[in-house]
Amino acid sequence: MSLDVYLDGEGNPYIADVTLPPVDPPPVVPGPPPTPQDLGYLSPPSPVDLQRYLGWPLLDEEQQEAAQAHLDRATTLTMAYTRGRGFLQGWMAPALRAVVLSLAARSLTNPTSASRTSAGQWASSPGLPEFTLIDRLTLDNWRRRAA
Q1: Which of 95, 108, 116, 130 is a plausible cystine mate for 70, CB 3.0–4.6 Å?
Q2: Residue 147 has what pLDDT?
Q3: What is the mean pLDDT of each run of 10 residues along the chain (147 residues)?
Q4: Where are the domains of the chain?
């Protein structure tokens, strides 16, 4: 490397004509492709995840089967809405996993899609088992809208 120092009109030093030796880039070592976990993807939610999300006690075998069926439905609907974006080798993006849990929880707690239930003085308006506005806003980030 050569370094030439000069003085400007006021006597201040400055460096000019710096030449650096050529640097070879480091060799590219092919490695395995990144896994879904390396990319931040999460495993699909399980019935235990749904149970914890709802704050329920332990589920028996029949309840676990029902929870798995609702999770499968929610995953299928989410995958169809996003046209597969956000899903990789059976793993899903964290935002999509949250939507799946939310939708499965609504459909598990309200399987008949009742918008209002009443008995005497008691009345309830549970959430519908469909995508909410917040779900749609989240999913729209993953949805491909043009061909």
Answers
A1: 108
A2: 60
A3: 66 67 80 83 92 90 92 93 90 94 88 69 66 89 76
A4: 47-112+126-140
DSSP characters over 67-123 = HHHHHHHHHHHHHHHHTTTTEETTEE-HHHHHHHHHHHHHHHH-TT--S-EEETTEE
- pTM beyond 0.90: the answer is no
In the structure encoding, which two tokens stand for residue 142, read together? 């993953």
Nearest CA among 108, 110, 107 for reference residue 125 = 110
Which residues, at least 6 apart from 62, have a Cβ–Cβ distance to it below 8 Å? Answer: none
Q: Which two tokens stand for residue 121?
A: 């003085």
